[in-house]
Amino acid sequence: MPTSASVDKSLQPLLWLVAVGLFMQTLDSTIVNTALPAMARSLSESPLKMQSVIIAYTLTTAMLMPASGWLADRFGTRRMFFAAIFLFTIGSLLCAESRSLDMLIASRVVQGVGGALLMPVGRLTVLRVVPREQFLPAMSFVTIPGLIGPLIGPTLGGWLVEAVSWHWIFLINLPVGLIGALVTLKVMPDVRADDEGRFDWTGYAMLAFGMAAVSFSLDGLSGLGFQHATVLVLLIFGLAALTAYWLHAGRTVEGKAGPLFPRSLFAIPSFSIGILGNLFARIGTGGMPFLIPLLLQVSLGYSPLQAGLMMVPVAAAGMAAKPLGTWAIKRFGYRRMLFINTLMVGLTMASFAVMTPDVPVWLRVVQLALFGTFNSMQFTAMNTLTLKDLSGPHASAGNSMLSMVMMLSMSLGVAAAGALLTGFTDFTVGPEGRDTLAAFHKTFVCVGFMTGAAAWIFAQLSHAEPAQVLKRAEVDVE
Questions:
Q1: How many CA atoms lie within 13 Å of 462's alpha carbon, on the beta-carbon side?
Q2: Which of these three, 144, 169, 197, is where a domain ends?
Q3: What string of DSSP letters covers 325-355?
Q4: Whole-angstrom Cα distance, residue 231 to residue 228?
Q5: Which residues are bridge partners to 433 per DSSP?
Q6: Cα separation of 457 and 408, whole Å?
Q7: Based on the domain organization, do 111 and 210 belong to the same domain?
Q8: Rounded to whole angstroms, how far apart are CA atoms 16 and 462?
């Protein structure tokens, strides 16, 4: 495990602060999943319609990420990092005090605003304060908690649900947030740009509205209960807004801010294929952390703690597979590796359609570990492919766009999985009424095919694509 020993001692408190902030953000992205059935019982809701709790957080994070850098430059890193921890902590308290699903969703939005700023502002501070020769060990140290959070999140969430109540998955953030806010005032430098420049508010509004409308349209038929006409209107307006942003990004008007993500980024083949492949591959995989704990508890009779423990093989295998992903890229090149691995990810996801109460536990563990292995290799390859050829101004914009797409695809993935599960549940009827297990099986097959279809995007890579591993390896934090 990387340590902060190779970084100046004066900078180590800052690294610990940023690391804890990243840990809070990644932990909260996964700790909720195993608690959804308990939340549903407490709030008198169906556990199959709780995906909005996850979507509210991930979508808010995706929408605000593009503005995080400008906000830090405009108001200073100390003020924005303090605001991030404060909002995250207040949002956690509001979540714990929620007495209805609508209130919980609104509280998760507040929490998501804080979460959207924690990681980008923290990493931006490290980038600007730490000397270049110490940057790699500093970022390696900071990003390790981002790997540990998903590893312990589901199990910790399941244990808290059984030991006390689901409210404590949010209440545990309060003491950490309070200490983090006080430490921020003491150790976080107040870094800001000499000239924060103009911000493309017009483009940002188009992009944010487009992301929100498309995500709401997917979630509208299930969690939100929208009518078909409302879903159709939202989808059309969302796609129109994203199209308008694409056209807007190609314009350069003197005296106005440049686009958040210039279209010239897509002139780089590795970036355009990597970012589109990231989006579509992750829409399928993004629903798995939502579906698996729900399947285990709703249809297979697992307790919250047992369901959380069953997620450990996914995260543990994912961490262990990081070197394997790098080896596969070097050995086979990006095109062949990603084409085959994307199909394998989709196949392992679809294989959950055979998971029944009769399947031995050891076989479920192997199945989960295989999914974690292929999924981790997929993330490593997609991220390095997307960023490896970027330089200069493109590096910052491309990295920000990748972070936004990662969060957006999680939101779209959960929304799509929830819509599929609700649809199949309504139309899958067995001898004893609705066959929930069969609905899960059909949903896993669909999301598996959705992910596997992204292999054709990676097939568009050049056959002569060299097998390069990104020199700035610290950008891959998954």
A1: 10
A2: 197
A3: HHHHHHHHHHHHHHHHHHHHHHHHHHGGGG-
A4: 5
A5: 430
A6: 19
A7: no
A8: 42
For residues 24 and 84, membership in a common domain is answered with: yes
pLDDT of residue 29: 77
188 three-class SS: coil
Question: Which domain range does residue 466 map to?
Answer: 264-478
CA–CA separation, 350 vs 448, rounded Å?
5
Angle of CA points 299, 412, 418, to nearest 5°: 25
Q: What is the pTM assigned to this prediction?
A: 0.84
Query: How many residues are listed for the chain in this entry?
Result: 478
The partner residues of 430 in beta bridges, in order of sequence, read 433
Percent of the chain with pLDDT over 70: 88
What mean pLDDT comes out for the span 433-457?
89
Distance CA 445, CA 349 (A): 7
Instruction: Decide if 1 is inside a domain.
Output: no
Give the model confidence (pLDDT) of 412-432 as tens digits. Answer: 888 888 888 888 887 765 555
Among 155, 182, 197, identify where a domain stops. Answer: 197
Measure the CA–CA gap between 265 and 19, rounded to whole angstroms.
30
> What is the domain-level CATH number for residue 329?
1.20.1250.20
- Return the structure tokens found at 68: 């995080």
Q: pLDDT class for 226, splitting at 50, 70, 90?
A: low
Q: Specify whether 234 is located in the same domain as 141.
A: no
| Residues 375 and 452 reside in one and the same domain | yes
**pLDDT tens digit string along 243-287?**
998 888 877 655 466 778 888 888 888 899 999 999 999 988 988
**What phi and psi, each to the nearest 5 degrees, are found at residue 430?**
-110, -170
**Residue 469: predicted pLDDT:** 44
Out of 7-21, 171-185, 390-404, which region has the weakest mean confidence (pLDDT)? 390-404
What is the distance between the alpha carbons of residues 216 and 316, in angstroms, rounded to a whole number?
A: 33
Q: pLDDT value at position 189?
A: 86
Sort 198 into a burial class: Cβ within 10 Å, 0-12 / 13-18 / 19+. Answer: exposed
Q: Are residues 358 and 234 in the same domain?
A: no
Give the contacts of 358 (CB within 8 A, at least 6 positions apart).
Answer: none
Show Cβ contacts of residue 97 under 8 Å, excluding neighbours closer than 6 positions: 107, 167
* Per-residue pLDDT at 467: 44
8 A C-beta contact, residue 349 and residue 285: yes
- Of the candidates 295, 222, 304, 283, the residue with the CA atom closest to the CA atom of residue 31: 304
Phi, psi of 417 (to 5 degrees): -65, -40
pLDDT at 7: 67
Residues 287, 440 contacting (CB under 8 angstroms): no
